[in-house]
Design a protein that fits this description.
With 383 residues, the chain is of the alpha/beta class. The chain has 2 domains: 79 residues, 5' to 3' exonuclease, C-terminal subdomain (DNA polymerase, domain 1, Orthogonal Bundle), CATH 1.10.150; 247 residues, Rossmann fold (3-Layer(aba) Sandwich), CATH 3.40.50.300. Helix content is 42%, strand content 18%. Strands 1, 4, 5, 6, 7, 8, 9, 10, 11, 12 and 13 form an 11-stranded mixed β-sheet that branches. The longest helix has 21 residues. It is globular. The structure holds adenosine-5'-diphosphate and magnesium ion (MG). The site of adenosine-5'-diphosphate has 11 residues, from helix 9 and strand 12.
């Protein structure tokens, strides 16, 4: 396990030898076996365990020992790692020009298409529809919030929760850490979580409380959460660039970045640095979108909004990340307080209606309000 990631429950070391052996074992399999290994992998989202995950970079044509070493040094071990990077990142890692890097990137994607891990570039709408129907989701813990998200947090997508301080973004993240580890019939994906904590607000004791309230074994849940504290924006980017190994070694299905924007906001102050901040944040958000798709994980990012008193029309709050985050997150949910309850609104979704639902925060983390509160809220919304 990389030094940047630590299990939250205790400092128990994951048996890296076992993982290495597993990787070696896969490597020893013939290419034919690897290619035909997963009959379910038709490029749809319900990608089963796919051996494409363990195919190392040197299996790609044109990658020799020197380039392999450079890539490995940059934490790029597998073809999937390569496909999850931008040509710029690859160019930096191997010291090549951008065109060569883009070719390598494209080759990696083609390989994953060939292995039927990724879908073809050109496909019928029927095929896309079939894939969308097979997308896996994680329950948020609240039926209302799940309904708003058409069934829960989508894998292979980035969902952004934004709202003011205390609106419940971190509570949503904590609840998801418990929910994703549930079996599918209980709303989870039976998978582990990587929690990138940038504001030092991850609390294992809150996880224990939520797990107990939901009748789960808190120790097992804590063991399934890999926490990475990010100390600055560069560190946060580095952690994300090493995600591939965590996904491979631990069966991660959810990646949380709480908050995605805090470091950028703190480090780039003033108007002069605004465009640099937006550029860096843009790069980070695009890397998140690529990681979600390539590693078949759900990504949840939070973003704090500030009340801006100079706004007289429209929404008095705006997301810190501004347009950058808005344009790269696949789904955006705006959270606000109303009395003891919380309201979630789906914003700018390519297919969801823009509507609002009510949820509450309690010992179970995210939960539904009592029925009478719920129905009076719905009635008010309709009138
Ligand atoms: N154990 C708990 N039971 C009920 N509500 C809680 C509990 N812990 C935290 N909360 C609620 O969560 C709020 C903080 O939400 P949080 O997710 O930290 O906000 P942010 O959007 O800033 O991340 C608190 O104000 C409180 O209302
Ligand atoms: Mg928070």
């Amino acid at each position: 396990m990389s030094g940047r990631f630590q299990a939250s429950a205790d400092s128990k070391r994951v048996n890296t030898n076992k993982n290495l052996n597993r990787e070696r074992q896969f490597k020893l399999m013939s290419k034919k076996e690897v290619a035909g290994s997963d009959p379910n992998s038709d490029g749809s989202s319900s990608r089963g365990p796919n051996l494409a995950m363990y195919l190392e970079v040197e299996e790609l044509e044109g990658i020799g020992p020197v380039m392999k070493t450079k890539l490995n040094t940059a934490g790029i071990v597998t073809v999937m790692d390569l496909a999850s990077k931008s040509p710029n990142e690859i160019a930096d890692a191997v010291g090549s020009d951008l065109q060569r890097a883009a070719e390598i990137c494209e080759k990696a994607r083609e390989k994953l298409v060939e292995l039927k891990y990724l879908g073809e570039n050109f496909v019928s709408a029927t095929e896309i529809y079939k894939r969308r129907m097979a997308i896996e989701r994680i329950s948020t813990g609240s039926k209302n919030l799940d309904d708003l998200l058409s069934g829960g947090i989508e894998s292979q997508a980035v969902t952004e929760f934004y709202g003011e301080f205390g609106s419940g973004k971190t509570q949503i993240c904590h609840t998801l850490c418990v929910m994703v580890q549930q079996p599918k019939e209980l709303g989870g994906l039976h998978g582990k979580v990587v929690y990138i904590d940038t504001e030092n607000t991850f609390r294992p004791e809150r996880i224990v409380g939520i797990a107990e309230a939901r009748e789960c074994d808190p120790d097992a849940i804590l063991d399934g959460i890999i926490v990475a504290k990010a100390y600055n924006s560069a560190h946060q980017e580095l952690i994300l660039s090493e995600l591939g190994k965590q996904v491979r070694d631990h069966g991660v299905r959810l990646v949380i970045v709480d908050s995605a924007v805090a470091h950028y906001r703190a480090e780039f102050l003033g108007r002069g640095t605004l465009s640099e901040r937006q550029q860096r944040l843009n790069k980070f958000m695009h890397a998140l979108v690529r990681a979600a798709e390539i590693y078949n994980v759900a990504v949840v990012a939070t973003n704090q909004v500030q009340a801006s008193p100079d706004t007289f029309f429209g929404d008095p709050t705006k997301a810190t990340g501004g347009h950058v985050v808005a344009h790269t997150s696949t789904y955006r949910v705006y959270i606000r307080k109303t009395g003891k309850n919380r309201v979630a609104r789906m914003v700018d979704s390519p297919y969801h209606a823009e509507r609002e639902v009510l949820f509450v925060l309690n010992e179970k983390g995210v939960d539904d309000p009592p029925e009478e509160v719920n129905s009076s809220f719905s009635k008010r919304k309709q009138s």
